[in-house]
Amino acid sequence: MERVVTMLEILTRELASQPARPIHVPVREAISPAAGSDLREGAPSQVAHTREHPKYGSDARRGDLHEKRVAQAIEQWLNQRDDHFHLFHDLAEFHQVSGAGLEPLSLGGTNLDHVVLTGDTWLIVDAKGCGAGVLGLDPNRDGVLVKPDGTTKQEKWLDDGRAYSRAGVLYRLTDGIRGQTAWIVPDTTLLHPSLQHAACRKRGGLVLPMRALTDGHFDQHFPAPQRPADPAHIARLSTRLSTHQQPRPTSSP
Predict the structure, then answer these.
(1) Which residues are bridge partners to 125 per DSSP?
(2) CB atoms within 10 A of CB 236
(3) Is the distance from CB of 70 to CB of 213 less than 8 angstroms?
(4) What mean pLDDT is predicted for residues 178-184?
(5) Phi and psi at residue 122, in whole multiples of 5°?
(6) Side-chain-facing half-sphere of 32: CA atoms under 13 Å
(7) pTM of the complete model
(8) Sign of the C-alpha dihedral computed for residues 124, 125, 128 and 133 taken in this order
(9) pLDDT (tens digit, 9 = 90+) per residue, 81-111?
(10) Do residues 61 and 242 make contact, with C-beta atoms less than 8 angstroms apart?
(11) Where is the composition biased (Basic and acidic residues) (predicted)?
């Protein structure tokens, strides 16, 4: 138990006075907006229409409950904006991706949970449902979650340095547009300052609670007004929607 006690001392003492503020996002059926969804404020809602679209059907893989909540939080944030965004859920099949004058790059079986795209930049959002506790690095700088009962759980995604490769794929597919990567954890997950040294963040990227989405944290990354995304970039990402790899539903919406 010596390691658990040490971790509690390192990761919880200075955060004891910083309780997580929960965000109340309604949980509804998984949605998968089409690549061309118009998410401007005041525009006709595309969510209900595309949720059961035969091409991006309601059976699209959306991951666990936290991932669904993150998707809804992203949409809630974007619906407050007046400019154009394109939102993609669950992109995959990144094999020998070329572009921007760079060598081809492959991600193997890695998928991208959510991608927000405009004509100026992009954002990769990866949902991480860690659960309640304190997220940080242990003395060996390995990712770990200290649960409320004092036990620890490895969080190996913090030790994964491939985030730069994921960003490299988007950089290629958008002809050299630069963007940002973010890992979104539940609001019940407290973040320890040691996370700044996590391997996944070595070349940029943010680990943030889900409330950062609806609180408008990423407005600074997408200063208004944003230019509409290039149709060619939209098309390239659309071909990698993972639902394209699944059988289409036989019934109409």
Answers:
(1) 114, 182
(2) 18
(3) yes
(4) 96
(5) -150, 165
(6) 21
(7) 0.74
(8) positive
(9) 999 899 999 999 999 999 999 999 999 888 9
(10) yes
(11) 49-64
